[in-house]
Amino acid sequence: MQRYGTRLDFEDKRLVRVVDRDGHTHATIAWKSDTIRRLTVPGAIVDGAVIEDALFGAAHAIFTEGNEPATTMSALDWVTPTEIPAIAAPGQLRHGAGGALINVIAQIAQAAGVTRLHYAGPYPSDALYDTLRRSFHTDATQEEFTASFFARAANLSRDPLPFSFVPDPHERIRINGGHVEMRDGLERAVIDGVVFSRGTDTTKRLLASVDAESNTEVVRAEVWFGNVSYAQVATFDTSGVLVDGPHAPPAYESSVIGKRFPKQLVDAIADLCAQCVPAPLAPAARAFVTAHPIVWADLGLHTAARTLDEIHVHAALWDHVLPLGLERLAMTIVDALVPVVTLGATAMLAAAQR
Prior knowledge:
- The N and C termini lie far apart (48 Å).
- The chain is α+β, with helices and mostly antiparallel strands.
- It is globular, with a radius of gyration of 21 Å.
- The protein has helices spanning 97-111, 126-133, 142-146, 149-155, 263-276, 282-290, 316-320, 326-353; strands at 7-11, 14-19, 25-32, 35-41, 44-47, 51-53, 57-63, 69-74, 83-84, 118-119, 136-137, 166-167, 171-175, 178-183, 185-191, 194-198, 204-210, 217-225, 228-237, 242-244, 294-297, 304-306, 311-314.
């Protein structure tokens, strides 16, 4: 039993199942000799058969829970993994499946006594670094890890980077509407697909405080726009138990709701988004943004979203971030749009290749 109650089940000294303290299964692994036959995490299934992939060469196919093809990942030594695999299109994996998969690899490595792994793929991105930090420790800074991104993406490099990642997986515990990740306390919560994390440099925050009524320490999941707390969504105790919520945020009213961004601003945002996605996606990202009107809207917990014909941005950014400066507003909008744009650009490329 682990610190927060997670149970790891083994057969023949190999990890076969990860179950949280409330009995919810977060991973199952079916082994076949010295490799896996299948690995299942919420949102994704990895087929252990090695296939030939145009991007990685030797690879594994990844499917959705409905057995629809999703993407591929570089082949792995599953018994004693020393490499962190590259995933071709992590944006195609829903419900946090990419992070869940990386965490299981960290659990397998830790159980096998592997003390360090190296990333051996072409996309050492900021997003990947953030994902790896949830399941590994490293002395590499984000700037060091991502410094070679463009060169590696251009050459589809597969040699291991020199930075060591020491397995330190989190414990994932299901809650109503999502899950929490526990390691050194509550580090991350996902509620209705929205990620809340520690710190004050994000819109969705986990903030520790002392509850006035019980005089006990709690962690609150809150939505902030600029320097304003917009909504308190949920409250957890220090062991990650949901003690209040989740609550839907109040309806947001603003004079800009329904108004479109001017073309000049859309073009500038398109250029910034193109700089923030993997290099091979940059042209498609720019085209995707310029092809869709961007409209201010009330998005509840979300800062950005896509409809069939438009891209929506939460109007609270205009009301509460603009007073902090136009540059701050532009970068906040781009940060919110990058996940939406990455998915849209990937879909555009896939459609063009059909």
